[in-house]
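Hi R.,

As promised, here are both runs. First protein below:
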Amino acid sequence: MRAPCSSPLPSSVPRQRRPRPPSARSPQRSQAPAPASRSPVLGPGAVDLAVEADAIAPVRIAVANALEGLPVDACVQHWNGRRKRLLIADMDSTIIGCECIDELADFAGVKDRVSQITERAMRGELDFEQALRERVAMLKDLSVDVLQRCYDERVRLNPGARTLVRTMTANGAGAFLVSGGFTFFTSRVAQAAGFQANRANTLIEAGGLLTGEVGSPILGREAKLAALREETAAAGFTPADALAVGDGANDLAMINAAGLGVAYRAKPIVAAEADAKVDYADLTALLYFQGYTAADFVTD
């Protein structure tokens, strides 16, 4: 088995390996070139290391041990199928740098209380649906005008987010944003980053004020998994062809089900179960993990 170990931060450059036979897979499934067909350097501070092994798990353990304490992100995976056909991403603290509900709570004067609940929910210590309803209730009577102000003043794409989405979609992949947050924000973030569709929860309003309620059903852990399965089935392939990325406990089901599940600046419970984690690089690391080079990146 040939397994690439892609590192989006400085590492040594391996020697070239012998060419591998051309892939017999369908041309619809885009594959990264074999190591010998190009330089192992993917971009500034990013390399491919080709390893021959009988199984992935021992290589992942060896790489993790070798890199312990170093500011390097690595992804060990099978060579074939590494370039994914679907990106499904969490929004808060993944594609954007904040938790929107915490920022709304700041405008309502209850950020300390809400953010504590958010942190515990993302660590998997609280039931997500119950925690969401409790936090939204604290936003009761907040003017809906604050939503746009919050978006304008607080919401920013994380570094590499737009490049990640645009590069994958330019190469034929689908890109979907799923969030336990709110459609007001996902619709705008999806447009800003280039996602093709988005799913999230709906804040209920009346008379220009938030009612403190959220629409049902709640989009949480299982709904994110359902979104992954539905979107891949609709496109005619399987979750193995997808890349899922997130940071909180409600992202775990989709991360575990995807062909490549990535924990981005994630809570410990997520980092422990993901195929790979990104703690140091920006979101373009997910492109390097798939074998894209910096020259392949689609940027503004």
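And here is the second one, sequence first, then its structure tokens:
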Amino acid sequence: NQWLFYRQWLELKGYANSKGIAIVGDIPIFVAMDSSDAWTSPKEFFLDDEFQPTVVAGVPPDYFSATGQLWGNPLYRWASMKRNGYAWWIRRIRAALRLYDIVRIDHFRGFAGYWEVPAGEETAINGQWVTGPGADLFYVIREELGDNLPIIAEDLGEITPDVIALRDEFNLPGMKILQFAFSTDASDKFLPHNFSRNFIVYSGTHDNDTTWGWYRNTATDKERDHFRRYFRTDGHDAAWTMVEGAWRSVANVA
């Protein structure tokens, strides 16, 4: 069944491409402990002699969670990967680009630095920031795949200057989420008048409510008021208003 789906998917992709439609796919920076990747390439991960992780992925405590988020993914042995020319990552990106024309990498900030938590912890509190491979990895990917990397950097969350520098060094488009734009003031980076061109604008992501659900249920009164004043609307068709706002922005893609 998997083989049959794979064949049908490539036929569908070929048809879409023939009509001038490019397909955007999505891969997470980390893989699951029970994934085929961890099973077939255990030396690429921090695993013990019994193939159990010694450290796992997460994010630190923040405004939204006092204990952070404990994802539990095994972490990469970046030094080992570097010695073999990041071959595992090259294979992974190549495989993704067989299925999609453009690949969005979730948690892009982890390439600059990631939150490492000792295995066995019940929360992410006792983790630490660890420096990622940074530009070194993307130099190799660019050498293998060409200068114009078809990669979208999911640059949401706790974004530090090193993440922005890494994204911009390789001219990777970042993301703007309109549902995030209305909680502060005119300087908010998610408001369309603050965009630059090399971004992709979304009304929301898989982590958000629908735009109509956001406007009716999730947004605060202040956010709804800001939304109406910014787009000069009465809010009766908030979803379409946000779509039009994305299209009218200077960002290259919406």
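A quick note on the second one: Residues 145 and 195 are 28 Å apart (CA to CA). Let me know what you think.

Best,
J.
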